[in-house]
Amino acid sequence: MDILKTISEEIKLSPAFLEALSQKFKLEKHSKESILLREGDLCRKLYVIQKGCLRFYYINEEGKDITHWFSFEGDFMTELNSFYSQTPSDFYLETLEECQLLTLNLADIKVLAKDFPEFYMMESMLLRNAALELGEKIKDLQFRDAKTRYLNLIKKQEDILFRVSLGYIASYLGITQQSLSRIRRQR
Fold first, then answer.
1. DSSP string, 18-43
2. pTM
3. Integer-rounded Cα radius of gyration of the chain
4. What is the pLDDT of residues 91-143, one digit of tens each?
5. Which residues span the domain enclosing 105?
6. 102 has which bridge partners?
């Protein structure tokens, strides 16, 4: 798993831990536009994307869906609040492409955490990286103009324009699709 190789470059993961982790992972294949989580459901899985793209979104008071996050190959994805507290989710999680996902449930995570101290280091690193990315998104939305937000997004994920609809990208950036089209023409 490429993601574990990347993690191993920062944290020393024992062969025993890597073996236990690989035994706990379950491979799931999902078709395009599969809903993995709905608002009101309990999030029961943590996903590692081997192939494909996921969209994390919510429905606002006006009934419009708002994209909160995209995840691609090598990313971990879950609805953190719902997963760890086992409370109903406020979000939806959807596949935008055919996906191959490795999954872990909370019980397996608890076993891994109990048996392998390096699990906490790995979890801490993943949560830190997620917090840093979320902080960047907040800075983008609060302090940067739409064009800069767009340029930052395509710099981070170059092929997003070929994999994700412009409507979803505009929603993620907090702008209309017409504004996104204007920005793309100016580039």
1. HHHHHHH-EEEEE-TT-EEE-TTSBP
2. 0.88
3. 17
4. 999 999 999 999 999 999 999 999 998 998 888 888 888 899 889 889 988 89
5. 2-119
6. 27, 48
